[in-house]
Every structure is written in structure tokens, then in C-alpha cells.
Amino acid sequence: EYDGDRNAEGERHGFGKARLPNGDTYEGEYEHGLRSGRGTYRFKGGALYTGSYLQNRKHGKGIFFYPDGSKYAGDWVNDQRQGHGEYTYANGDTYTGEWFNHMRHGQGTYIYKDTGSKYVGRWVNGIQEGPAELIHLNHRFKGRFFNGKPLGRGKYVFDFGCEQHGEYIQLEQEKEEEEEEEGEEVSLPVEPKWKASEITTLTPWTPEDEKPPSP
After folding, report:
1. pTM
2. Is residue 41 part of a domain?
3. Cα(5)–Cα(7) distance, rounded to whole angstroms?
4. Rounded distance, CA 63 to CA 72, Å?
5. Where is region (Disordered) located (predicted)?
């Protein structure tokens, strides 16, 4: 069903309200039969989008409220979260920063609601990767991340005025002596281990910045 403006060709054009066959509704601007301009789209399942459209796709600035209580406010390109935006997750965590192709990609800040800790740094395809700082209540870690884990040289900076330098080392998977019943090796991911080298007063060292790989 459609109630609204039409152009000389009879196309939906201008402002209108529509109910789609699947039960979704749209109220907003149209151009030549397509959702274009500002509008609000309500999904039958409870989600809601309000913002800019271009030829039936979310494009420009907009806010999406998801059924689980999370929401995204920011830039959209061709129906994807892309550009700069803030996502508030159902558990209260937030991410503010760059997006590409619907994923966290580029520079961004993720705040963990439960602990108050925050990750400030690079992301690649939704994963923490590159130079970053992990900030806790009374200390912080500065270094590089790879595949969501710290790896390589870095330092812990303590608020009471000293630093512990060192590096995160990826240990080899230790082979189990006993054979598995199935006869297959079960390899569990090994967490990188912190190896401290020295304690110093505060120094201005920061990890070298590198451009994230192009998407």
C-alpha cells in the first residue's frame, strides 16, 4: 500500500508512506519510485532505520536500531556501515571510529563497559590489528596487536610513574605426550606470553604507525 506524492509518470515521488508486502513500513522521501532522501524504515521484526537513502539503499548519515537493543549511528555507503560511526552494543560496550564494508576498519576506540578499559588503535576487517594502546584503570599497554592479541615489542605504563618494557612472544604449540583417542592432534590457540626486559621512568616511546592493509 502507498499513500503519498507521485510525479507525472505515476511514480512515487516526493513524500509518502508505504506498507511493504512483508509487513515492513517506510515513511519518507521518494525519487522516481525509489526511496531517496530522508526517511524512516520500520522492520516487522522490531529493527528501525532512520536517515538518508539513495535509490532504495541506506546511504549518507543514519541511525539503525537493532532488535537486540544495540544501535549504530554514523555513515552508510550502499547499505553498508562505512565511513565514521558509533556502535553501542547490547552489553553496553561502544566502538567509535572508522568503518569499511560493514566492519570496524581503520582507527577506532572500543570501550568495555564492564571494566572501563578501552582499546585505542587500529582495526583491520573487524579485528584489533596494528599500533594501539590498551588503557586500564591505573595502567596502560602500548604496543602492536595482531589478530586481536598483543604481539612484539611494547611497554606497560603505570600511573605511579614507571614503565615496564618487554615483548609479547608467540610460543609454539606444545605437543601432548599422550595420543588423542581420535588419533587427531587438537591444537588450541596459544596466548602470546609477556616477557619483561626492563623497568624505566616514563619515556616517550610509541610503536611505529603503519598504514592498515588496503581493504
Report:
1. 0.84
2. yes
3. 7
4. 6
5. 1-27, 172-215
